[in-house]
Amino acid sequence: MGRHKYVLSVVAALPLCTALAFTAQADPLDQGDAAGKAAVDAQTAQLPEIVVTAEKREEKSQNVPISVAVITPELIQSERIQTVADIASYVPNVYVTAQPGGNSIPQYTIRGVAAGNSEPQVDNPVTVYIDGVPLGREVGSLLDLADISRLEVLRGPQGTLFGRNSTGGAVSVITSDPSGKLDLKEELTAGDFNAFRSRTVLNLPEWNNLSLQLTYLHSERDGDVRNLGAGTVWNFTTRSGGVYGDKTAARTLGGEDTNAVRVALEWKPSDSLKVDYKFDYTHSLQSPPATGAIADSLGLLALGGGSVSGLTRPSAVNDWFSSPNDMTVQGHNVTVAYTATDWLTIKDILGYRDYQNKSINQLDGAGGLHDPYGIFGGPAGSPLLLVAIASQNHFRQVSDELQFNFHFSAVDVTSGLMYFRENLKEINFDSAQTIVVSDAPGFLLPGPTEPASTQVNESSAIYAQAVYHVLSQLDFVVGGRETHDHRTDVEPVFNANTSNSTDHFNFLIDLTYRPINDVMTYAKYSTGYVPGGHVGPNSFEAETLDQAELGAKTEFLDRTLQLNAAVFHSWYKNQQFPTFPLGILDVLNAAKAHISGFELEATAIPVKGLTLTANIGYTDFVYDDISAAVRTAVVGSTTAPFLPTYRPKLTAMLATEYDFPRYDWGGQLTARIDSEYRSEYNTQQSGLYPSPVTWLLNGRLALVDLPMGRLKGQVALWGKNITNAKELTYVDNLGVSLAANYEAARSFGVDLTVKY
Q1: With b meaning 16 or more CB within 10 Å and e meaning fewer, what string describes 578-605?
Q2: Model-level pTM?
Q3: Phi-psi category of 560—alpha, beta or left, where left has phi over 0 and alpha has psi -120 to 50?
Q4: Which residues of 546-573 are buried (b: 16+ CB within 10 A; e: fewer)?
Q5: 279 pairs with which residues across the strands?
Q6: Under a CB-based contact definition with an 8 Å cutoff, are residues 106 and 193 in contact?
Q7: What are the C-alpha distances in Å from 482 to residues 265, 379, 510, 718, 732?
Q8: Could you tell me which of 316, 312, 189 has the C-alpha nearest to residue 253?
Q9: Is the CB of residue 250 less than 8 Å from the CB of residue 287?
Q10: 95, 189, 363, 596: which has the highest count of C-beta atoms within 10 A?
């Protein structure tokens, strides 16, 4: 009931705030506000200059010879980007989706390199960074950060500067810094599915060289699909060894209840020294997205009284085993930057992160089954589970990176040392996390709990990258990184205690040429790798990726037109391929492959106030060789087709944004509409059940810079997936069934922002 009071109060406040806006005096434009900054750019009819840290030093994005896409504060606000998953709509050749088992388990694909494994024994080829701290696990990286300032997406192998296992690319999340001035910002959102979101940001005035920012976030919404198995109570006391008691299936699927706190403290005693401390804490209860069974390979659905779901998102499914996942993530980050001389800057980034998750999910999409004859271990009529997950994970990591930046007239050098260690503990309530074709008489899951598995992953590296200014228009870049990885894996269920070490050298060579002002071209060759390891007693080798790239970054017509382009070709060797026969993980080195593609990104201001944005990405992934073991494990034959999955060949986006002339009383109307295109892609190596061509349409209409005396406000109406696309996004072959996830449902809402 409390939630609905909050929602009603927000809706009731909107007409009042609008009325105040029309009667109050207009304040001068607040240059620090994202909407205000966008208005300034529109008035000057020039594209803004964007500063990035893609090479671990501040540079203008157009001057960096890297295929980097930047999600700016303005785009974060206008498109309501709240998690890393939201970047997929705006960056070509990038796709992010959630997998069965919850929103905390993402599937990333960048330039044809897919990363989505949740197992602690295997690293992922796309690395997510938060304020320079690498996240060891993809699990939990879709968390709703309380205060994102900027997102940088680096496409292609980042084996030198962002070297930890980044064969596909890196996603760098930069959170905001304290302003050192007293200001308070409150953002409220109400939407369908009983959505309510509140974000409060408080900056305190600088005191004794100390600046402090505090942020609190609360976000909740119901899921977009009804759970026909809602209210089913499962008793886990015996199976979990007392970790769980009774767990109740969620009422809706895809919902959340999140609370997050963030603290940013900056100490700047002099112009040469700055110390930043940042802390973030997120607690989230997430019901996994709706999972439907779209195929039944063994006839168990018909036997147990279940039904097959369709190939588009249904209004309801039976996921009677799925209850809200309980996820807690926290992190500490201390960054010390010291300008020793006019040619040397030293920076140290010390990070600690802790992730805990309790998961009980229906992976098969086949809830409501009963064993009519008691052939799977219980009395006739017992509840029957095909493939479900029940586990408790605890991941901890510590990292430290010491950077040295040298700046001379003829050369710039970025070098450093990196250390990373993560400890992972996984308590599974059955073999390899999963319950496979098992009865649960009286909804009581029999024991015992298996012993916990533990992993320790360590990585240390030394790197350097130099930019030689050969001529005023010509730069030569060379970089290298030597990495040592060591892994230990203790898995009692397999009676396995293994360890292995890997040493690898990555390098980068780049030639950059600027024929005229505002035009930069580059040719680059770079490498990356992901270390090998063990799953139980079975070992797998490191995978490697080499990539050649040609690119250009250009600006024309007095910085009112920006065109960036890149073409690339990759050589992929020893691709690590997770397989899940009956839910038990194994990792095999699958194949050799080559990947070719291009990206084209354009932004233009044809007239004052109007901004047009378009991009297109093309990726062609071709297997050159597939191991017989992988073919047999995945498609059951050494001769059957084996196709790449979760790699759309074509992604594109078109957006139009218009800032109307400012009203005499001070406010301004802005409108944005964008469309995202994604071509068909395979969800299965066999080619069955592809995700079809998908168009997503989003829009936002905002009244910004509303003068409210000493306050300034903003009201916005928005819609996501306005056409309500329902396509398949993910299909998991579990052996006994094929389980599917779908595009999230259409949603609408209203935002109210007030700033003091």
Answers
A1: bbbeebbbbbbbbbbbebbbbbbbbbbb
A2: 0.89
A3: alpha
A4: bbbbebbbbbeeebbbbebbbbbebebb
A5: 263, 332
A6: no
A7: 34, 59, 19, 48, 37
A8: 316
A9: yes
A10: 363
Q: Which residues of the chain have pLDDT under 50?
A: 1-43, 429-433
Interatomic CA distance for residues 746 and 721, integer angstroms: 5
Dihedral angle of Cα 723, 89, 197, 741, to the nearest 10 degrees: 70
As a whole number of angstroms, the distance between CA 110 and CA 547 comes to 13
Partner residues linked to 397 by β-bridges = 353, 422
- The dihedral built from the CA positions of residue 115, 119, 120 and 122, taken in this order, carries a sign that is negative
DSSP string for 292-349: EEEE-SSSHHHHHT-----SB--SEE--TT---EEEEEEEEEEEEEEEEETTEEEEEE
Domain with residue 464: its CATH number is 2.40.170.20
pLDDT at 582: 57
Tokens representing 291 are 């999972």
Q: How far apart are CA 351 and CA 279, in angstroms?
A: 10
Give the dihedral of Cα atoms 239, 243, 248, 250; nearest 10 deg.
-110
Per-residue tokens: 753: 């922002």
In terms of Cα–Cα distance, which of 128, 84, 79, 88 is closest to 109?
88
The token pair at 435 is 């319950």
Residue located via tokens 């008035």:
43
Residue 139 has a pLDDT of: 63
Burial 152-165 (b: 16+ CB within 10 A, else e): bbbbbbbbbbbbbb
Tokens 């001057």 sit at which residue?
63
Picking from 466, 540, 533, the residue whose alpha carbon sits closest to that of residue 498 is 533
Structure token pair of residue 167: 């064969």
**11: phi then psi, degrees, rounded to nearest 5:** -65, -40
Q: What is the DSSP string of 95-162?
A: EEEEETTEEEEEEEEETTEEE----TTS--SEEEEETTEEPS-STTTT---S-EEEEEEEES---STT
Rounded CA gap, 132 and 348, in Å? 10
**Contact in structure between 104 and 118 (CB atoms under 8 Å):** no
Largest CA distance in the chain: 82
Give the whole-angstrom CA distance, residue 410 versus residue 361: 58
Listed in order, strand segments (DSSP E) in 249-290 are: 252-253, 256-270, 273-286
Place of tokens 């069934």: 737
Cis ω on the peptide bond leading into residue 448 (within 30° of 0)? yes
Place of tokens 């960056």: 91
Partner residues linked to 469 by β-bridges: 475
Q: Residue 620: give the domain boundaries.
A: 2-755
CA atoms 7, 10, 15, 16: torsion sign: positive
* Both structure tokens of 537: 């007693």
Q: Are the C-beta atoms of residues 89 and 96 closer than 8 Å to each other?
A: no
> C-alpha angle 339/342/346, rounded to 5°?
30
- Tokens for 129? 């960074």
Identify whether the C-beta of residue 173 lies closer than 8 Å to the C-beta of residue 84. yes
Q: What are the φ/ψ torsions at residue 629 (nearest 5 degrees)? A: -65, -40
CA atoms of 421 and 457, how far apart (whole Å):
6
* Cα–Cα distance for residue pair 374/380, rounded to 1 Å: 4
- Closest by CA position to 21, among listed 671, 663, 749: 663
Dist CA 601 CA 607 (whole Å): 19
**Overall number of domains in the chain:** 1
**Cα distances (Å, whole numbers) of residue 718 to 73, 194, 228, 670:** 17, 15, 30, 12
By the 8 A CB rule, do 319 and 312 touch?
no
